[in-house]
Structures are given as structure tokens and as C-alpha cells.
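Ticket #4471: structure output looks truncated?

Reporter: J.K.
Steps to reproduce: submitted the chain below (205 residues) through the standard prediction queue, then opened the result file.
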Amino acid sequence: MLPILLLCLLVSSSHAADFCVADLTGPETPSGYQCKKESAVTADDFVITGLGVPGNFSTMFKAAPKTAFVAQFPGLNGLGISAAYVYYAPGGFIPVHSHPAGTELLVVTEGTLLAGFISSANNPYYKTLNKGDAMVFPQGLLHFQVNVGETTAVGVVGFSSPSPGIQVTSPALFSNNLPSAVVEKVTYLDDAEVKKLKKMLGGTG
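Returned output as attached by the reporter:
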């Protein structure tokens, strides 16, 4: 009788830990969202649609990323993965940025991309990628992609976190109210260049 009882306990406890669908009505914490009640979970929580349809291309970057992070895809909560599709018009690019909470794996499915990252020792690693090629960008390191082909390029991206975060270098410096004098000091740029970039990216100060 005791072995059967233990087996029942093991089955019920493993079932309870199958998943933790995000309750998006609450706050996101460093460990993720709280779990939605299982009675409220549906198959839709584990499905996301529309990634294969390009969104609006940024006029500045000529690129259109479509993310499947936990905020758009609640079933990812706690699973350590997320994804994105990125569309790059000819000449389009994703500027230098980092993902503080996740490693990125890029697979090129259409077109040609120049992609790379910069190590913490300031060594650049970059390569021209064609259809079927892949490149990994280690967590937290600055990286970029540029469409160097003549047609739209497409990349399918995977992350090692349901919410990898993103910080784009240029907006971080020039799209806020950090005083120009401070920006000039920490970037070696002159006042005219800083003011020009702040105006371009919506910053003040």
C-alpha cells in the first residue's frame, strides 16, 4: 500500500510542476512572473502566431523585429527560452545592443547578413552569414546585424531566457535627458555631435 501511495504523490507533484504560465496581470520579477492558476490556462498560452508576417519596418534601422518573449507568449515563463523573427530590408540593420539576461542564437533563413559581437576584451568577432548559417552571441555582449545583400533578409532568433531584455547603445546614450556635458565626457564626442545625436534620437539636456 505504501509504494502505491508514494507513486501517487510523485505523479501529482510532477504534474503540478509541468509549467508555470505567466500571469501577465502581475509584475515581472527577476525570477519571472507568478503562475496563472492552472484552471485558467488554455492551449493559446502555449502558441504564438504571426511571427512569419513582417511588421512595420523602422524608418531609421530599416528592420522589423517580431519578438516572442514571455510578455507576448506566457507559456514561456520559467522555461529558459524565447524567440524572435527579424526582417531586414536591403541596407537594414539592428544596431549595437546587448541582452543582459540571455544568450542569442541567430539562424539566417533568407538573404545575407554581416553579424558580429564584441568581447569584454574588446575583440570583435564578425562574419558574413548566408541562408542556413547560424551565429551565437554570448549573454550580455554587444552585438549587431547588417543586411549586406540586395534583398530582404530574415533571421530566426532563439534566446536562453524567456525575457532576455535589450539595451541598444545609441538610444541609451542619446535618447534620454542625460546632460550633454556628461555624454561628451564619457564618449569623447564633441558638443555638436552629441547635440546632433540627441536631436536625431529624441534626447534632451
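Triage note (M.O.): checked the attachment and the full C-alpha cell line is present. The mean pLDDT is 91.
Status: closed, working as intended.
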